[in-house]
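Re: that backbone. Tokens:
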């Protein structure tokens, strides 16, 4: 899979089947988890946030299921995870975890957001 397509998928974009075929990314052999994590680690080393800034839910407001990575000025990375409960207005949980290596932050993000290894929008990640 090409770098741009993988970046878009990791950012939450969904390619329909016609787009997948026209981009030459379908069918595709399984992706290796360490290669996906390395790709994401490279991305987050140059960005303040991935895929977008984390916005914590406000009391009484809607709760977005989200996972985001922040690159701190000191070279640290923080992964934020927030999940809704039975109702989209109930916060089931929110946590953050700090990492000193981009690869470790990327691996944690992939597991928290996509439950990888496993299925990534139709692509097998092993």
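Recovered sequence:
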């Amino acid at each position: 899979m090409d770098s741009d397509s993988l970046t878009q998928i990791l950012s939450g974009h969904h390619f329909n089947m016609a787009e997948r075929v026209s981009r030459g990314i379908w069918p595709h052999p399984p992706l290796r988890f360490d290669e996906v994590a390395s790709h994401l680690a490279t991305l987050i080393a140059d960005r303040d946030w991935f895929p977008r800034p984390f916005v914590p839910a406000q009391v009484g407001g809607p709760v977005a299921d989200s996972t985001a990575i922040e690159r701190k000025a000191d070279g640290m990375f923080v992964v934020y995870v927030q999940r809704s409960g039975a109702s989209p207005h109930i916060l089931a949980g929110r946590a953050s975890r700090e990492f000193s290596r981009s690869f470790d932050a990327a691996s944690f993000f992939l597991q928290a957001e996509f439950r990888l290894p496993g299925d990534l929008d139709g692509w097998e990640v092993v």
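Helices lie at 3-10, 17-23, 33-44, 102-114. The mean pLDDT is 95.
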